[in-house]
Amino acid sequence: MNLTNVFRVMGRHKLLMFFGVIVAIAAALFTAFKLETGSLWESGTLEPRSQIEYRASTNILVSDPVSVFSSRNATQAVPDGTTEATARDLASLTVVYAYLASSDELQAQVEEQVGDFGPSESLSAAQRTTQPTAETNTGTYRLPILDIMGTSTDPARAEEISRAAATIFQDFATAQQDAAGVAPEARVQLPVIDERPAQAIDGTNPALPVVAVGIGVLLGFLALIFAVDNAQAGRREAATVSPAREPIPSPIAASTVPTGPVPVLHPAGEPGQVAYRPAHQTQHAQTQHPRQPDPIAGVDWTGQPARR
Known about the structure:
Blueprint: H1 3-12, H2 14-32, E1 33-36, E2 45-48, E3 54-61, H3 90-101, H4 104-114, E4 122-127, E5 145-152, H5 155-180, E6 192-200, H6 207-239, H7 283-288
Antiparallel strand pairs: 1-2, 3-5, 3-6, 4-5
Helix pairs in contact: 2-6, 4-5
C-alpha cells in the first residue's frame, strides 16, 4: 500500500482520525504532567512528571609534592637504624578520597554553604578511569584524578554544588594533614585541574516518553482505521454479487413444468407390426424417390402392408 492509498483511507474516516489525534495528545500530556493538590477545576496545578537533570564535575589531581612532570621521587635522608619510606599508590588513594568527598559529613558542610539539597539534587565523587574527552567514566584506567560531581535540575545549581564540594574537600584534607602532623614535603597535593560546565544527563529528557506515547497511540488508531475500512469494504463487496457468485436455483418439481402435445400412436394393423406415422413429404419428393417396401417390418413407406 502506497502513501496515496493511506491518505485515502484516512480521508474516508476523518472523524475517527480526529478523535485519535485528540486521544494521542491527551495521553502524551498525561505522560508529561501530573495533577497536584486538588482537581484541575479546583485550584489544581499540573506538575511535570520528570525533569531534565544536569551534572557538573570538578576534577582534582591527587599528587605528591614532587611535580608530576618529574621522573624521580624526592630524595629523603634515612637515619641510621631506620628504613626508607615507600611512596603510596596515589591511584588507590583516589578511591578512598572519593568516598570521603561524598560522605555525609562533607555533604552536610556543602549544604551549610549552598543550602539544603532538593529531592533531585545530590553530591557524588568517583575516580576517573577514561580519557578526558570521554562522556562516561567506564574505562579501565586507574588515574589519580578525583571527579566531584553535583547533580540538579538547575544547571547553575549543579555547578555550585560541585565547586563548593571541591573546595570543602580541599580544606578537609588540609585540616586532616595538620591534625596528623604530616610534613609539608610528604603531604598529598589536591589542585583543581578542570571545572566542567553542567550537562544534561542522558535519559532524563522528559520529551522522549511524551513523544513515544503520542506516536504509539496514534499508530494504534491508524491500525483501527484500516481495520474498520477493510470491514466496510468487505460488506460493500458482499452487497454487489457478481454473476459467478449468483445462488443456484432450487430444483423444480416435474409436475409443474408445462409439456407439449402428446404424440398419438396408431394401433398396429397386424401382430408384429410397429405403429408408424410417416413424415409429410411433398409431391415432388415422392415422384423423385418412390417408396420401397420394407420386407423386415412388413410395411412399405406409405404405411400400407407390404405385398409378398
